[in-house]
Design brief:
Its EC number is 3.4.21.108. The chain contains 10 helices and 27 strands. It has helices at residues 2-55, 75-81, 112-115, 252-265, 282-287, 306-309, 329-337, 386-392, 411-414, 434-442; strands at 59-72, 87-101, 107-110, 120-124, 130-139, 144-149, 171-176, 184-195, 206-209, 221-223, 229-236, 247-251, 271-272, 275-279, 296-301, 317-321, 324-325, 344-351, 354-361, 363-364, 373-376, 379-383, 401-406, 422-426, 429-430, 449-456, 459-466. A hairpin with a 5-residue loop joins β2 (87-101) and β3 (107-110). It is globular.
């Protein structure tokens, strides 16, 4: 009996000793794990601090001033005398945005909508210095503008990364001036890439991020964990106007191509493929006997274009550009826009169920002569044709200029002018050609209000638009 009790005591002691050691080992493991996690967190934190230090002298706040002339009448005069002489009042307006230095001699990149129509532009640095800048050139189709600081100082440019190499899930860090709060940095990830068909810009291939982007962030850089610019913050999706984690940035490679063209020539030289494209739908996939909906349908090929030289025909389905898969027409347009004139490209396409590859060289997109089309205060106009009348359902006697495009975030867009509407007169002068419109337009003082007669298939109405 004594032996059994002694044996039981020894077993219990060994068990307790084992438990004690296990507990100690467990605590040691937890402590080691906590130290490792803590160390990783601190290292990540230090990376963010490093990015902030790297960009602080390159990111700028942008302030603009614009003079506008507003027509008004005196209601008291109208009441007392039955009439009131029209008056013009001069007012100043402005906007706030963001940008970043892209060269040591003071070139700055921002969004076109930040500086569009500005009479004066100022850039402010993190140390409080504010310098005047001038617009060098812009690209409304992508929403990029290039400024030049009026100073002989040497500046610190941000470094561009390769936006083609980004991955969904990687860090994305946004810099800018949201809601007037200078030198703000927010952190998130790349939520998606290749976003298009959103109706934000004419050419879209956005990087989507959940890094907080708000009003005033426009034009600021979106950078990776090494501090290299991968995008230019441009827009957000938000029912409330504030960030809900869905922001969009222009890919750096597209912006760099535009930047180089503007600085080199003062204008945008867009690469040209020469195709009209259509997105695929289930019906077209069935009709063309395709195994997938990936790709875009070629509906027309311009004579003598790079596409024709590559052997493309109407009815072909382009599935790949170089090493990138093509998912939509707007995506392919943006991919071409990100390439330089003279670039060699490879196209993969399907014809009659067989896959082909072809190489071609992108040429420069022809500039449209002013007699055929031109842009004024956010309105792109061209001479009305019989085809336009039939397409939009106007009467055969309709005259004027047809609206072919409306700049995003312009006054024209805000008051509801849309492609397909017709401009019949400006300041009560009838216009039947772009030259007619330009002659009157050029005689109007900048910032002054213009009276424009707009027609739709349902009727006509006068609107006012500031030059």
């Amino acid at each position: 009996m004594y032996f059994k009790k002694s044996l039981l005591t020894v077993v219990c002691a060994l068990f307790l000793f084992s438990c004690s050691n296990s507990k100690a080992d467990s605590q040691t493991a937890i402590t080691s794990s906590s130290l490792a996690v803590s160390k990783n967190a601190i290292e990540t934190q230090n990376e963010f601090v490093s990015v902030s230090n790297k960009l602080k002298d390159s990111v700028v706040n942008i302030r603009t001033k614009k003079t506008v002339y507003v027509n008004y009448y005196n209601p008291i005069e109208q009441f007392l005398y039955g009439r009131s002489e029209p008056r013009t009042e001069k007012k100043e307006s402005g906007s706030l945005g963001s940008g970043f230095i892209i060269s040591t001699d003071g070139y700055v990149m921002t969004n076109n909508h930040v500086v569009n129509g500005a009479d004066e532009i100022f850039v402010k640095f993190s140390d409080g210095r504010e310098l005047e800048a001038k617009l060098v050139g812009n690209d409304p189709e992508v929403d990029i503008a290039i400024l030049k600081i009026q100073s002989k100082e040497t500046f610190k440019p941000a470094e561009f990364g390769n936006s083609d190499n980004i991955s969904v899930g990687q860090w994305a860090i946004a810099f800018g001036n949201p809601l007037g709060l200078n030198d703000t940095m927010t952190v998130g990830i790349v939520s998606a890439k290749g976003r298009s068909s959103l109706g934000i810009e004419k050419i879209e291939n956005f990087i989507q991020t959940d890094a907080a982007i708000n009003q005033g962030n426009s034009g600021g850089p979106l950078v990776d964990i090494s501090g290299k610019v991968i995008g230019i913050n441009t827009a957000i999706y938000s029912p409330s106007g504030g960030s809900i984690g869905i922001g969009f940035a222009i890919p750096a490679n597209l912006a760099v191509n535009i930047k180089d063209s503007i600085i080199r020539t003062g204008k945008v030289e867009r690469a040209f493929l020469g195709t009209e494209l259509q997105d695929l739908n289930p019906q077209l996939v069935k009709q063309f006997n395709l195994s997938t909906s990936n790709g875009v349908l070629v509906t027309n090929v311009t004579e003598g274009s790079p596409a024709e030289k590559a052997g493309l025909k109407s009815g072909d389905v382009i599935t790949q550009l170089n090493d990138s898969r093509v998912n939509s027409a707007s995506q392919l347009v943006a991919q071409i826009a990100s390439l330089r004139v003279g670039s060699n490209i490879s196209l993969t396409y399907i014809r009659d169920g067989k896959t082909y590859k072809a190489n071609t060289v992108l040429t420069k997109r022809a500039e449209t002569p002013v007699s055929q089309a031109a842009a004024f205060s956010g309105l792109s106009l061209k001479t009305l044709t019989k085809q336009d009348i039939q397409k939009y359902g106007y009467s055969a006697s309709m005259t004027g200029l047809i609206v072919t495009g409306v700049g995003s975030n312009t006054e024209a867009a805000k008051i509801g002018i849309q492609p397909g509407m017709i401009v019949r007169s400006i300041n009560r002068v009838s216009v039947n050609s772009v030259e007619d419109f330009k002659k009157v337009y050029d005689s109007i003082q900048k910032g002054a209000s213009m009276l424009i007669l707009i027609a739709t298939p349902n009727g006509s109405q006068y609107i006012t638009l500031n030059k």
